[in-house]
Design a protein that fits this description.
The protein folds into three domains: 3-154, PAS domain (Beta-Lactamase); 211-294, Signal transduction histidine kinase, dimerisation/phosphotransfer (DHp) domain (Helix Hairpins, Orthogonal Bundle); 300-453, Heat Shock Protein 90 (2-Layer Sandwich). A hairpin with a 5-residue loop joins strand 9 (371-378) and strand 10 (384-391). It has helices spanning 3-54, 61-69, 103-112, 145-180, 182-192, 211-259, 266-297, 309-323, 349-366, 397-401, 422-432; strands spanning 79-83, 89-92, 114-119, 122-131, 134-142, 305-308, 328-333, 344-347, 371-378, 384-391, 435-440, 446-453. The chain is built from eleven helices and twelve strands. The protein has 455 residues and is an alpha+beta fold. The chain has a five-stranded antiparallel beta sheet with strand order 2-1-5-4-3, sandwiched between helices. This is histidine kinase. It is an enzyme of class 2 (transferase). Keywords: Kinase, Membrane, Phosphoprotein, Transferase, Transmembrane, Transmembrane helix, Two-component regulatory system. One of its GO terms (cellular component) is plasma membrane. It is found in: Membrane.
């Protein structure tokens, strides 16, 4: 989950919790207020009925019922009962409604003086009334239909407001976070395009002195330091390679002169040839290091042009024959009638020749016979696949994992002179061409290198 979504979700969840808590408090407060207000109305009605019945001598039950029938503030579904101290019913209003009661309720009323409860949809109030040392018990019930309707409307309003507010906050929060962190997206896109070949790039700094801009400045400083370190490393590699090439060339020249002297014994000639091989190995190592340094320095893609891959392979084959005149190349193109085969790729011809020259050279050194087979085909995605195979001892799993690392030499190369940089150099060149190279062995004693050029 991205940082933007995480921030938006956290803010929205926090708002939802706070808004839900506020809505609950509002609903609970209004519900308590409605209940208490209706209780007061019931109490006023009960006391008024008791006073008229007990204290006013001129009013009897019939007159009281008449007053109750014509009262302006009559409650919905109202029922009033008045009992004397012997729990005998003295008065009952004319309503058809009923009140569930028993003697224990009246006894509880004498002890607690009052009670208030809800039965189904009606509220019931009990009051103990004392007049001239005589006990009276009043039970009154009614339904607060208007208050309950208001409470239901409030609940509906709060629910709709909660849902609408939550959705609005979720979308608006994500929108504002998206705008707020847009510089971070720009920063991410810019650093994604940075590679070892583009360390001189400086990220664009904003006008605001916020955390993202401070991060951009710090990243630019870090890039400058890395570029300086890389440049120093490249210069050292290049200078050291140039300095070493000169004495190596002199050593090779002197050894060649010594080998031409017929007065040397066979043992001396063998030793000189062995030394010459080691000098050539060291020279190849220096040349490979120098080329790696050069590739790192150059923006290779600026030199790209259309190159026919078959011409590259044949040119590498000629160089391989100079290395070993017995080298034999088998070349095959798999033609698919449904796909128009294109042998052209975008790249630098001289660099691609180095790739295949290294593969052919390995075939000369590590194969049972100095030979290689090249198969070219193109798939429906217009990817050009080149399979270079040779017969020889296959690599174990440990060597496979480290095959393209610098100075890597497998167990099958212990008796062969080499630098261990050929495949590393080939992979580096193919990376610059947005191509891939992989090793596989599908059959015993068959080594295959699969090169894929994207469309």
């Amino acid at each position: 989950m991205t940082l933007k979504r995480r921030i938006a979700i956290n803010i929205a969840v926090a708002f939802s919790i706070l808004f839900g808590l506020a809505a609950f408090i509002i609903f609970y407060s209004f519900s308590s207020f409605r209940r208490e207000e209706f209780r007061q109305r019931l109490e006023e009605k009960a006391l008024t009925t008791a006073k008229l019945l007990v204290e006013v001598k001129e009013i009897d039950n019939q007159i009281l019922k008449l007053i109750d029938r014509n009262t302006i503030n009559k409650l919905y579904n109202e029922k009033t009962l008045v009992f004397d101290q012997n729990y005998k019913l003295l008065y009952s209003s004319i309503d058809d409604a009923t009140i569930s009661w028993d003697t224990e309720d009246l006894q509880e009323l004498k002890r607690a003086k009052t009670f208030f409860r809800t039965e189904r949809e009606k509220d019931v109030l009990g009051i103990y009334y004392d007049f001239e040392k005589t006990d009276y018990y009043i039970l009154i019930s009614a339904e607060d239909i208007y208050g309950n309707n208001k409470l239901e409307f409030l609940l509906f309003t709060l629910a709709v407001t909660f849902l609408a507010g939550t959705m609005l906050v979720w979308f608006s929060t994500y929108f504002f976070i998206e705008r707020l962190l847009k510089p971070l997206d720009t920063f991410q896109k810019q650093i994604t395009n940075i590679s070892a070949n583009k360390l001189d790039i400086q990220l664009e700094e904003g006008k605001h002195n916020d955390e993202i801009n401070l991060l951009t400045k710090a990243f630019n400083i870090m890039l400058a330091r890395i570029e300086s370190a890389f440049q120093s490393q490249r210069e050292f590699t290049s200078n050291a390679s140039h300095e070493i090439r000169t004495p190596l060339a002199r050593m090779t020249f002197k050894i060649q002169n010594l080998l031409q002297n017929p007065e040397h014994s066979p043992e001396t000639v063998a030793s000189l040839k062995s030394i010459n091989d080691y000098v050539h190995q060291l020279s190849d190592l220096v040349n490979s290091l120098l080329l790696l340094s050069k590739i790192n320095k150059e923006d290779a893609q600026k030199r790209f042009e259309k190159v026919r891959i078959d011409e590259v392979i044949f040119s590498a084959n000629e160089k391989a024959k100079k290395f070993n005149p017995q080298f034999d190349l088998s070349f095959e193109i798999i033609d698919n009638p449904e796909i128009e085969l294109s042998m052209e790729v975008w790249g630098v011809k001289s660099l691609l020749e180095i790739v295949f020259n290294n593969l052919f050279k390995n075939a000369c050194l590590y194969s049972f016979q100095p030979a290689a087979r090249v198969v070219i085909e193109q798939n429906a995605s217009h990817q050009l696949t080149i399979i270079v195979s040779n017969e020889g001892n296959i690599l174990n799993e440990t060597d496979k994992e480290k095959l393209f690392q610098p100075f890597m030499r497998g167990q099958n190369a212990n008796q062969t002179i080499g630098s261990g940089l050929g495949l590393r150099l080939s992979k580096r060149i193919l990376d610059y061409h947005s191509a891939s190279i992989n090793y596989q062995n599908t059959q015993p004693n068959l080594n295959q290198f699969i090169i894929i050029f994207s469309n």
